[in-house]
Write a sequence for this structure.
């Protein structure tokens, strides 16, 4: 994460970013925004979380016991 932050012209050292993320120190607004941007870009690169499929998402297989309401 620090390398991404640094690539945005981040000005604080890696240990300071770590301390900020642990809420041990405060940083100037611009540095906080650059850290947030770096974190958000890394999150965007993660694969999408899996979700529970709905019936429409599944290959339709006829029910052996049809829904009595439908």
């Amino acid at each position: 994460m620090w390398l991404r932050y640094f690539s945005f012209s981040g000005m604080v050292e890696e240990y300071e970013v770590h301390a900020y993320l642990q809420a041990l120190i405060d940083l100037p607004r611009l540095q906080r925004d650059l850290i947030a941007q770096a974190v958000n870009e890394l999150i965007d690169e993660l694969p999408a979380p899996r979700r529970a499929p709905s019936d429409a998402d599944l290959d339709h297989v006829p029910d052996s016991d049809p829904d009595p309401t439908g």
Q: What stands out?
A: Residues 52 and 58 are 10 Å apart (CA to CA). The chain has a mean pLDDT of 89. The two ends are 52 Å apart (CA to CA).
